[in-house]
Design goal:
The protein contains 3 helices and no strands. The chain has a domain of 41 residues. Helix content is 39%, strand content 0%. The protein is mainly alpha-helical.
Length: 67
């Protein structure tokens, strides 16, 4: 049997590989002009959902959101 570390699904990592080396760096980039850190499009979608719930009592369909 190999001395390589084996994962539960049977994948074998080479001995020199480190999971930390393979991962990219995650940076926070809040959308300009927003305090919530979401994009303008995401804000529009949230407003659409909130308006539909307030007026209809249930959220809009994905088709309604896209319109």
């Amino acid at each position: 049997m190999h001395s390589d570390a084996s994962t539960p699904n049977g994948d074998v990592s080479p001995p020199h590989a480190s999971h930390h080396e393979d991962l990219g760096q995650v940076l926070d980039f809040p959308a300009p002009g927003t305090r919530t850190g979401i994009s303008m499009r995401q804000q529009q979608i949230l407003e659409c959902i909130a308006a539909a719930i307030a007026s209809q009592g249930y959220p809009p369909s994905m088709r309604e959101i896209a319109e």
